[in-house]
């Protein structure tokens, strides 16, 4: 196995159902862009990237957190959805190099074991404070322990591979902070066994963004866009019809300020549209904001974003249709061999620290 000094980049997306545009723009597309810049797919790009700390390729770990999926109901479609989710990366333009590794979390048992060990490092109090846990348990009589323990398994996913950069949406930054805290606590006790992932502000910088990504619910832009939103008009799914999707954008909630400007606090609906436009077109957010500065017609902005999203979905869906399942299955076989090797080596160090070996 080749090792490099370049920082490992890792992410995962759960596959409980179809992905929303939020999942795609918040995590999948940033991951594909980082992977292509740092995996050795484009050596010229790598050497000249402003963010590159090393000219060596980074290991790019893309995994399916299928054990995280079972905190909610799953059905017989899980396997098919899992394969499809990995095809999404390819359809989004992921270039394959020997440094790109695809794997399923449940096929690397070290994740579950490290999760248990980290449970003995984490405290109930800090897990109780996790916003995602509070949201998912609010008003419920009974909540499964997996929902509570979710961030500890996520920490194991990251720490097993010494991942430094973890492209995720802004809603996951709290879990990233927890991961850093658990790693630090462990290292203070046992020595430098874990690499701490970068702080959220450095993650944002590495992704070449000005802030973390939180795509908003189209109808209620105070909230993030979520697969579980009751109204179909609140969310854009990657499988949405590219023409029909325009209607959803045209009916997005805005405000009565009457100016097109980026102000998530006072104008979350308009800011959300500017954010979406920037990511689907691949332009820096600042450029999109400047283009619309001084404009007042919300309808014009909606029309432009509707066109951009529609074109983006049509192109993406056409590429997806061309990718056979076998393309992913072959990658998983190699990826899981690699992941087990790396993860087991780290787990062994941890087991030794706890006198389990
Ligand atoms: P999941 O499946 O809930 O979300 C997958 C990714 O999509 C991002 N996301 C969004 N980003 C911007 N705007 C939105 N509206 C939006 N909705 C979702 C999430 O931030 C996430 O990046 N816990 C992870 C899965 C995971 C993981 C890991 C990720 C498990 N272990 C280790 C990285 C490293 C999650 O949120 O999945």
Structure notes:
With 357 residues, the protein is mainly alpha-helical. It contains 15 helices and four strands. A four-stranded parallel beta sheet has the order 3-2-1-4. The longest helix has 29 residues, at 325-353. It is globular. Residues 47-52 have low confidence and may be disordered. The site of tryptophanyl-5'AMP has 24 residues, from strand 1, helix 1 and helix 8.
What's the quick description here?
The chain has helices at 21-38, 43-48, 66-69, 78-91, 110-119, 124-128, 131-137, 145-159, 173-190, 200-206, 244-250, 268-281, 285-292, 298-321, 325-353; strands at 8-12, 60-64, 100-104, 163-165. It is mainly α. Tryptophanyl-5'AMP (TYM) binds next to strand 1, helix 1 and helix 8.
Outline the secondary-structure elements.
Elements: E1 8-12, H1 21-38, H2 43-48, E2 60-64, H3 66-69, H4 78-91, E3 100-104, H5 110-119, H6 124-128, H7 131-137, H8 145-159, E4 163-165, H9 173-190, H10 200-206, H11 244-250, H12 268-281, H13 285-292, H14 298-321, H15 325-353
Parallel strand pairs: 1-2, 1-4, 2-3
Helix pairs in contact: 4-14, 4-15, 5-8, 5-15, 8-9, 11-14, 12-13, 12-14
Residues in helix, %: 40-55%
Identify every distinct bound molecule in the structure, by name, code or SMILES. Answer: tryptophanyl-5'AMP
Rg estimate, integer Å: 21 Å
Number of helices: 15
Attribute tags:
mainly alpha, binds tryptophanyl-5'AMP, 357 residues, 15 helices, 5% strand, globular
